[in-house]
Design brief:
about 325 residues, alpha/beta, 7-stranded mixed β-sheet, 3-stranded antiparallel β-sheet, 8 helices, about 25% helix, about 20% strand, globular
Length: about 325
């Protein structure tokens, strides 16, 4: 599958695709080409959508690379959901959270968007609304269509969501998702605006019992590929990991000294009330952080080097 030969005119190309095609980003294209090996464009629209809408296709390519790394074989003979595991009782539907109408999209982020002084709770609330809308839409799609498909029935239904909802989404980790799914603080609901109240702890709501788990990331971004790529340009990585759920580890390193795996930053949130639970052992690698509610107690897996929470990358420019 050729992702990079333009199929549309430059005025229709997504800003992220244009960035990707720059001469200096050859290593980004190299990583993406590797992710795409074996991926089948079932409806002959994927490449065009990659070039025009970008983020949702980027997320699907990343997920496919993760599944390959876990030896989860995908059966592309079905048109939906997005990923049907060939040898496992699991189907996965991919979705992203995009920016709200009239809000700043992630590809236009500026320094002020990242350091604008907004209170952290305001940032979480904005994220909660975007995450809820994405998950609820896919839950409704399952009820309306997927639940009746023979190849879906009797299998765990997983929603895989990436947060591109705000320019600073890569800084916010998984706090909002924990609140949305489990509501351990028992807040019950949050206000999207003055007129709309939305629920928290949706895994406790019967309509979400069809969702076996949520796969989540906010860091499967351009920075992920920068970390994995072969470029020797001068990049500085700033990252935060958390060890044993409490110890924050701040990292500042040049590209040559920075280490990050494909799956670092990936989360799997299990639904304790799922009609068809997702087996815990499907996502055992240390660099995948799992959330499991067992007998009313939250248990999480912990990477010995700390679980990646956020990461940003800066390119150093040389001046004469």
């Amino acid at each position: 599958m050729d992702l990079f030969t333009p199929l549309v005119t430059p005025n229709r190309q997504h800003p992220n695709f244009k960035r990707l095609m720059s001469e200096s980003d050859w290593d980004v294209r190299e990583v993406l080409a590797d992710w795409a090996k074996g991926f089948i464009d079932r409806d002959n629209k994927f490449v065009r959508e990659f070039q025009t809408t970008f983020n949702s296709c980027w997320w699907e390519l990343y997920l496919y690379a993760v599944f390959k790394s876990l030896d989860i074989n995908v059966d592309f003979s079905f048109d939906a959901p997005d990923f049907v595991a060939r040898d496992l009782p699991m189907v996965v539907e991919a979705v992203i959270s995009s920016h709200a109408e009239n809000a700043t999209p992630e590809w236009k982020k500026s320094i002020s968007d990242l350091t604008g002084g907004r209170h952290i709770e305001q940032r979480y609330t904005e994220t909660l609304a975007r995450l809820y809308n994405s998950l609820d839409a896919k839950r409704r799609l399952y009820d309306r269509r997927y639940s009746g498909l023979p190849h879906v029935q009797g299998k765990s239904f997983v929603i895989a969501l990436h947060n591109f909802g705000t320019p600073d989404s890569f800084q916010l980790g998984d706090v909002a998702m924990q609140r949305l799914l489990y509501d351990l603080e028992e807040r019950k609901k949050f206000s999207k605006n003055e007129n709309i109240s939305l629920p928290l702890g949706i895994f406790n709501h019967p309509e979400f019992a069809c969702v076996s788990a949520v796969i989540y990331s906010s860091v499967a971004t351009y920075g992920k590929v920068r970390a994995l790529g072969r470029s020797t340009e001068q990049f500085v990585f700033q990252a935060t990991r958390i060890r044993n759920n409490s110890e924050l580890i701040s990292i500042a390193a040049n590209k040559g000294d920075y280490i990050e795996s494909l799956r670092d930053g990936l989360r799997v949130f299990h639904n304790p009330n799922a009609k068809i639970p997702l087996p815990f052992e499907l996502f055992d690698p240390l660099d995948v952080r799992e959330f499991r509610m067992i007998n009313g107690e939250m248990l999480t897996t912990c990477h010995p080097d700390g679980d990646l929470c956020m990461r940003q990358v800066m390119r150093l420019s040389q001046h004469d």
